[in-house]
Amino acid sequence: MIVMTKDTMDIVREQDVVPFRNRVREFGTRIGMSLVNQTKLITAASELVRNMLKYANGGKVILEVISHNAKTGIRLTFSDQGPGIPDIAQAMRDGFSTGRSLGLGLPGAKRLVNEFDLKSTPGEGTTVTVIHWKHGR
Amino acid sequence: MNTTAQVLEKNKDRILEKWMQNQMADPSLREDLMTNDELQHQSKEMLDGLLRAISKGNYDNIYETEFEQVTDTLRDISITRARQGFSPRETGSFVLSLKQALIEVLVEQRQNDTSTLYQEIMLLNTMLDNLSIVTFETFIKGREEVILRQTDEISEISTPVIRVWDGILALPIIGTLDSARTQIVMENLLQEIVNTGSNIAILDISGVPAVDSLVAQHLIKTVSATRLMGAECIISGIRAEIAQTIVHLGIDLSNIKTKATLASALQLAFSMTNLEVRRIDRNKTNKLLR
């Protein structure tokens, strides 16, 4: 896996969500991702970044254009130092929420992107990595 | 030996002159935004206040009462400049060029006493640095006020409720739908339903760039509130990519009437109110008239 472009954004308040989404869109346009795939990735990114703000008071996102086996894609890594997720299986279930929301953020984001990885240590923080290929399904 | 305050007081006119020279020499001076008389007046007021404050022997704590007038004047000037569109550099150079003038005069007066001069310069430095912090704080606050005012204006102009037909309201939502916007949208919409006695509201989301679960949740809330008022809600402007995204996210909008375009939403609204839009056959009507 080769990283071609890399960028980092700090997310600390609600106002950072829109510039961040625009950044993801910019990356998508740059590699020629179709509008549907761009929208999927942006929506997933939006969900994850909102979770980060709501549950961990913000964090950091790494945006990367990656290339693997002649495929180009975008990898986003969301890391925070929040309380962590005690039960990942429960958090990935549709409709489960500790914050009075629809409970679709995490499972929805997973369905929207090609690859999804969640690591969390209670008390230390959470890292979510998503990859969406240019010609993702 | 004279104290620093006394030395400065004695040379007040020279300081003012030097200070004005410094400010005039600055290439960034904005004569278009402010006349020289005005500048002279502000500078004099500031210097008077400052000399009065240090005559009490306080050089380091600008938050004491004797400095109140100085900081007030400075805040006044910074906030006015922020509103008038001065750059931070132009605003900051006001107080920073005073530092230069003060130091120049002290150097002239203390030629034989470098150790006193050194201490005096140190004191003045700290004091004026603190004053420039006040300048910038106020300047940024002034700018932030401008931004906040604009934010309010934007949220106000971006949520118009349009009466498209008797009993049918349309509400085009443009931009990101966050909690604060939803509140405004909902308030405007519900109020307009009462005012016009409408029973159908069309929420058009063509201008919403991304629909994530939070936005969807806000939409669902707005629709439920509208229903509680006895009106029906149609969501229009769902683009192809948004539709696919909503499905993958798993958001259930099945009990909400949705349409791709505002036109089809209006058509649905017409049929719900038993109205019909027909093309008139001119020939037929002409024949009838004949």
From TrEMBL, chain A:
<keyword id="KW-0418">Kinase</keyword>
<keyword id="KW-0808">Transferase</keyword>
<dbReference type="Pfam" id="PF02518">
    <property type="entry name" value="HATPase_c"/>
</dbReference>
<feature type="domain" description="Histidine kinase/HSP90-like ATPase">
    <location>
        <begin position="36"/>
        <end position="136"/>
    </location>
</feature>
<dbReference type="InterPro" id="IPR003594">
    <property type="entry name" value="HATPase_dom"/>
</dbReference>
<protein>
    <submittedName>
        <fullName>Serine/threonine-protein kinase RsbT</fullName>
    </submittedName>
</protein>
<dbReference type="InterPro" id="IPR036890">
    <property type="entry name" value="HATPase_C_sf"/>
</dbReference>
<dbReference type="GO" id="GO:0016301">
    <property type="term" value="F:kinase activity"/>
</dbReference>
TrEMBL record, chain B:
<dbReference type="GO" id="GO:0019825">
    <property type="term" value="F:oxygen binding"/>
</dbReference>
<dbReference type="InterPro" id="IPR051932">
    <property type="entry name" value="Bact_StressResp_Reg"/>
</dbReference>
<feature type="domain" description="STAS">
    <location>
        <begin position="158"/>
        <end position="269"/>
    </location>
</feature>
<dbReference type="GO" id="GO:0020037">
    <property type="term" value="F:heme binding"/>
</dbReference>
<keyword id="KW-0597">Phosphoprotein</keyword>
<dbReference type="Pfam" id="PF01740">
    <property type="entry name" value="STAS"/>
</dbReference>
<dbReference type="InterPro" id="IPR012292">
    <property type="entry name" value="Globin/Proto"/>
</dbReference>
<dbReference type="InterPro" id="IPR025751">
    <property type="entry name" value="RsbRD_N_dom"/>
</dbReference>
<dbReference type="InterPro" id="IPR036513">
    <property type="entry name" value="STAS_dom_sf"/>
</dbReference>
<protein>
    <submittedName>
        <fullName>RsbT co-antagonist protein RsbR</fullName>
    </submittedName>
</protein>
<dbReference type="Pfam" id="PF14361">
    <property type="entry name" value="RsbRD_N"/>
</dbReference>
<dbReference type="InterPro" id="IPR002645">
    <property type="entry name" value="STAS_dom"/>
</dbReference>
